[in-house]
Structures are given as C-alpha cells and as structure tokens.
Amino acid sequence: MKIEIINTGSELLLGSTLNTHGAWLGQELLGLGLRVQRLVTVPDGDPIREALKQSITDSDVVIVTGGLGPTSDDVTREATAEALGVDLIEDEHAVRCIQAFFDRLGREMSDSNLKQALHPVGADVLPNPNGTAPGVYVPPRLGDSSCAIFLLPGPPHEMHAMYHAEVAPRLKALTDLPEDYGVTNIKFSGIGESSFQDALDAKLHKFPELEVGYCARPGELDLRLIGERGVRSQAAELAMNTYPKQYINEDGLSLEETVVSELGKHGKKLALAESCTGGRVSSRITDVSGSSAVFTHGYITYADEAKVEMLGVSQASLVAHGAVSEEVAREMAKGALENSKADIAVSVTGIAGPAGGSDEKPVGTYWLAIAVRDGDAVRTSAEKKCSPHGREIFKLVAGQAILMKILRQLKPV
Amino acid sequence: MKIEIINTGSELLLGSTLNTHGAWLGQELLGLGLRVQRLVTVPDGDPIREALKQSITDSDVVIVTGGLGPTSDDVTREATAEALGVDLIEDEHAVRCIQAFFDRLGREMSDSNLKQALHPVGADVLPNPNGTAPGVYVPPRLGDSSCAIFLLPGPPHEMHAMYHAEVAPRLKALTDLPEDYGVTNIKFSGIGESSFQDALDAKLHKFPELEVGYCARPGELDLRLIGERGVRSQAAELAMNTYPKQYINEDGLSLEETVVSELGKHGKKLALAESCTGGRVSSRITDVSGSSAVFTHGYITYADEAKVEMLGVSQASLVAHGAVSEEVAREMAKGALENSKADIAVSVTGIAGPAGGSDEKPVGTYWLAIAVRDGDAVRTSAEKKCSPHGREIFKLVAGQAILMKILRQLKPV
C-alpha cells in the first residue's frame, strides 16, 4: 500500500517550528506494518492544491495534516474537493462537533468556524474532541480518485488523538493484516551497536516472518519487532535473554520512568551525587511525575570544595587520586547515602570536556559508584567508563549508565 | 527565487529520526531573504530520482541532503547526473578531499569511498572537512536544466558546515540582495506573547523595508528582523529599549550561555538551590563549557528534610508557611549562599504538578528568591510566579525565570 503524507504549514518551512508529524506518523504507521513512501511539506495556502493532486495520483493512501482552520489560508478542504471533482457542503454532523467543542469551553462559536464544517460530499466527518477542526475521511473510489484520504488537524495533540481514534482503525481495515499484528520496541543500554545487531540478527533470523529493525541513540539501543503478537513475544524474550543485564523495558517508558517505578515498587529512597553530569540525572528523575515519593536529595558537587563540604569526601583522597577517581566516587556515594538517609545513593565524577583531560584521564573519562545499606554498614561498588563524544552526549551517556546502575540494583539478573 | 529542499533517508520516514534539516535550512535561507516553497522527504534509494526530476523542473534552486554515502542505497549523485542528462566522472579534486579526510583520521580509505568522488561533468566539488562525502554544486544551465542544485551530506554537523562555507555564498551571488542583508534574532523572556507582538508591531511599522517575525517558545520570545544591517540595528535597539528588563541577547547564545559568560566577566560564583525544578537549572548551567569556573554548588532539595539538612531552612517556616512560600524560598537562597560561599545564590520552590496543588497554591505556583552579599550581610528578594502548563513546560519556564533573575542581578537596567 503506497502511503504519502502532506504536512501544510508555513512555519514548518520558515524554521520556526520543527516538523514532528512526519516522524510521529512514520512510527505509528510502522506499527501497522505500513511504510511512508514520500512526505511533502508545503506552506499554508494554495501550494496544497498541487501537492494533493499529485499525491492522490501516485498513492493508495494520503494523510494530510494542517490547513483545517477557519482562516482564508486554510484551504485543505477546498483543495481536496477540487482534486476529487466533488462539491463541498456544510455537514450537519460537523457543525454539531464544532458547536459541542465551544459549548465545553463555554465560548461563543464565531461564523468563521462554520467554514470548518464544510466537507466533500460523500466523505466522513472525523470528530475532534480537542479542537474546533473536525477531520475528514475520503474513502477510496470517491469522485475521480481511487485513493483513501485523511485530513487531520495540525496541532499535535489534536492530530495524535484523531489518528488513534479514527485513522488507525480505518487503515487496519484497508490492509489485510491480522488483528494482533503490531510493533514491540525493546530498549537496551550499555552495548556496542554493531555487536548488538550481529548477535541479535544471528538469533532472530529463525523468525523469518518477523521484521526486525534497530535504532541507536546515545546510551540506548532500541530493537523494533514488527509482526504478529506470538512471534513478537518469542523474539522479545530471546533478545532479553541475550542481554539481560542491558535490558531496560518494552513498555515504551523512558529509563527514568522505569527507575522511578521500580524504586516505588521496592519502597526505596534514592539520593544522587553528581559532579560532571551537573544535575542532569536528578532532572531526569524529577521529570517523572510522582518522583518526590522516592527521590529526596541531590548533591551537585561541581567544585572540589563542594565534594568535601556537602558529601564529606576527604581532602586526602582528592589530593592522592584526584576528583575523577574510584576513591572519590565511592566517598561521594557513601556521603550521599549517609547524609540523606536514602536506601540507595549513586555518584558520578568525570571530565565532560572539552577542557580538563590528560593522558591518564582523557576527556570523557568518568567513575560512577553506588552505595547501599548492608545491615548497619554501607557497601559501595564503583566502575570506570568513558564517553569522549562531546559534552551533550557525555551527560546523556553517563546519565544512562547511572540510571542502569540503579535499575540493576533494584532488579538484579 | 523558487527553492525546494529534498531530504533523503529512510530513517526520516520510519520515525526513528526527527528531520531537523528542513527547519534548519528554512531558518538559514530566511536569513538570506529566501523562502522554501516545498520540502520533500523520500526514502534512501530510487525514490530520489523521481523527486529530483520534478523539483528541478519546478524550481530555480534545489538543495538535496543525504544519499552521498558509499553504499548502493546512496544514489543522489547518479540521480542528479541522470536528471541533467550529463555523465558522472571520478573527480580528482574530490578524490583528494576524501583521501585528506582519511589521512587526518589515520585510517585507510576503502575502494567503496571512491564512489563518493563521482561528480556530474561540469559540477563543482564542495569540500567536506567533517566527513567522507564531498558535496556537489551544479550551476544553473548545466545539461538539460536551468536550476541550481546543491547536494549536501546528511549528517547535521557536516551539512551545517558545508552550508555556511559553500552554499550560502553561492546563494547570495544568485540573488540581488545587498551584501549586508541578513537576519537578527533577539531573545526576550518574561512577556506575554500578544502584548509583546502588539507593542513591537506598533513601533516597528516605521521600518517598512524590514521584515519582522515572532517566535514564541516556553519562557522565551524571539523577535526576528530581516533586512539591511543599518535598519536591523535601529529596530533592534528600539525593541531592546521597549523591554529592557526582559532582554536576553541577540548573539545567538542560549540564556544559560549568556549567564555563564556574565558570571565570568563579573568574577562571580553561583550556587543554586532547586526544589521543583529538580536539577534542571544546574544541568543547563553545566551544559555550558567552562561553567565549572563560576558554578560550584547545587542543592537539589526535593524533600522538606533536604531543605532543612542541606540549606538550614527552619522547621518553623516549613510548618507555618509550607515548602512553597516566600519565607522558605528566601531561606533556601540564603542557606545556599552561606554554605557554598558563592556570591549569588538563587532558589526555587513550587508545585510542578500534576498532583500537589490546592486552592491557595494551585499547580504551577512557584516562588523564587535570590541572595547576594551586601558587605557582611546577606540581602534576599523573592517573587511568586505561576506556570500551569504541565511538568515539562513548568521546569523550562521556571528555569528561564531563575536564569533571568541571575542575568538582571549581573546586568541591571
């Protein structure tokens, strides 16, 4: 099935807004086993006419986002009727949808909004509970076209909700895929990309009916499995058993969401002592709603004095081994655990760069340590890692390593 | 001048990679007074052939990104020669560029890389100091076409550098714009979008030759001025004088980069006490290379006990006024200043949500305070704000407010 996407919106071409619709729809369609063959972005107004005519000729399905608003620049509806050679009529169902939206807001509907109720004759109205613009579905073989057309609103939260409620079920019906066909995304961290791919390719080729994809991000590798549910589960289990220590989740949550959830399940409190990551890990943890139940103290000890004053790191260790050392990492974690009275404390100290490296400790070197209670004693362990690919990636990758350390403490394998 | 962009890359349509090239190029071209009339994204391989043929017919300039690699999927060069009706030849200059790149890395060049030296006869080689793929410039009126064509590599850092060095000067030569025509972006924070736009529209209409644009982001408003240098300077000064307290910069730096730079210029050290922002502000400060010279201590006091233990906030204030209060914010800032011995300390305490709000203190409420030394004494001031648009935007907006507080302390108006 040939699918094209048309995104309308001058802001997408002026660079003031990043086009996220293409990637979002690409991922959703992939979950239905469908691929986008072309994506065209055009400014508001007339350029949609030309783009639509061409896409309808070339494809089986066209999904258009944007241009459904009430202003004169919003011409997606008109362009569609024109391309199909059918009339536009004011649709009563659409009028009611728009009226209902204004009623919920307690606001008066303006006359210009009635334009949004215009629909090509024979098309379905797609309700929009989150905005004023109803969507449009043109089934195949309407007017001059054999192409199925979806017109969706531009604002992301409106478009996403309408896709799930109205578009995905219709696309499923247009394809012959089994009901339980779909996509599973499994996240891992801490493996080299090529060895990961080689190892899994070797094992997963025994599922020829499964489509396998890989996606590498800094500090994370995603395995994408597309197929029927049964074979996806088998393959997912095989992948997890291949890399149990590196396994994060397959439920779509972020690593930090999984960590916060596991801390909650185990009733454990967390403290963080960050030097080179400068608060990034604490910030990721506190991005998760409800994190205040499990995260209490964060120590950002960017300067040596801060390590001494806030965490009780010894001057002797700093002098003998330097701030980026196993000893200092362990003392930081221990100090954070004791000062905060948390159950688990993790520390990180390293050289984010671009300055500050040496032959012995090149830019990108970091030590991370974990401290946990063991009866009345505190047990620490530490490891050394390196990520020499710039400050931004350093913080991301070190953050992943820290969060994985916490996850494996809570869910050992 | 009609300009089209073609982005090739299957990952852009599968949703695994966000297409940032369109927005980036759109913004750069706007700075030359040029607008993109269409952007087409196609998968790797053959689809580029069709897309290129059509864009060359419809436009004066076509910019293609991607598909210049050494594999069989990389067919942008072949497709261009085909569309122009000219031959591909191995270009000696291109071979030397590729060889030089491998020499710098100390690696052996493989035979497949020689494919990257193929060029349409009559086209210019665009050197790529950051990668193996040289770019291509096809001047207008080569072969069957009257269109100027740029072929650029896909990796963003390679593409950006080549655009600045090779593409922008050639585009300038193709247009009739004066030498000092360009764009100025001015950043502000802490103003409502519509009053900002109304106030500046009223003042800037006295520069009819200037093109004015606005872009609103959470906690930041950008004013874009396009025109000749003289009129841009006058308009920029007028805008700055209209909102002097809200002015950030016009040099393209981020707010945190400006804050770190000003701290350095004034020889001041900073400490941060964050509750509801959970380390986000410290992380933004430490994103800036060289921040270790000005930022020493960050206290993430997510729990009440952490505020008491780490910052000496009084139990009495917590009980009498609650954690989200002027008193606690002031005590947090004062404690951070005294414990860290910094020159400036800023604190924030609030309700990020979605839970934890009340009638008196709804979700989104936050207090921020600043503490500075005044002889031997410590002077504090505090203010209350609200950002009720979800956790992510809350952290961003509160972060902007904190950083602006520091900036105005260093650069008062």
Reconstruct the topology from this structure:
The structure is a homodimer of 413-residue chains.
Chain A: E1 3-8, H1 10-14, H2 21-30, E2 36-42, H3 47-58, E3 61-65, H4 76-84, E4 88-90, H5 92-105, E5 118-120, E6 124-126, E7 135-138, E8 148-152, H6 156-174, E9 181-188, H7 193-204, E10 211-217, E11 220-228, H8 229-242, E12 247-249, H9 255-266, E13 270-274, H10 280-286, E14 295-301, H11 304-311, H12 315-321, H13 326-340, E15 344-350, E16 365-374, E17 377-386, H14 391-410
Parallel strand pairs in A: 1-2, 1-3, 3-8, 13-14, 13-15
Antiparallel strand pairs in A: 4-5, 6-7, 7-8, 9-11, 9-12, 10-11, 15-16, 16-17
Helix pairs in contact in A: 3-4, 7-8, 9-14
Characterize the structure shown.
- 2 copies of one chain form a homodimer.
- Chain A is α/β, with parallel strands linked by helices.
- Chain A has 3 domains: 3-174, MoaB/Mog-like domain (Molybdenum Cofactor Biosythetic Enzyme, Chain A); 181-249, 2-Layer Sandwich (Alpha-Beta Plaits), CATH 3.30.70.2860; 255-410, Maf protein (Alpha-Beta Complex).
- The first copy, chain A, contains 14 helices and 17 strands.
- Chain A has helices spanning 10-14, 21-30, 47-58, 76-84, 92-105, 156-174, 193-204, 229-242, 255-266, 280-286, 304-311, 315-321, 326-340, 391-410, and strands spanning 3-8, 36-42, 61-65, 88-90, 118-120, 124-126, 135-138, 148-152, 181-188, 211-217, 220-228, 247-249, 270-274, 295-301, 344-350, 365-374, 377-386.
- In chain A, the strands form 4 sheets. A 6-stranded mixed beta sheet of chain A has the order 2-1-3-8-7-6, with helices on both faces. A 5-stranded mixed beta sheet of chain A has the order 14-13-15-16-17, sandwiched between helices. A 4-stranded antiparallel beta sheet of chain A has the order 10-11-9-12, sandwiched between helices.
- In chain A, α7 (193-204) packs across α8 and α9 (255-266) runs parallel beside α14.
- The mean pLDDT of chain A is 93.
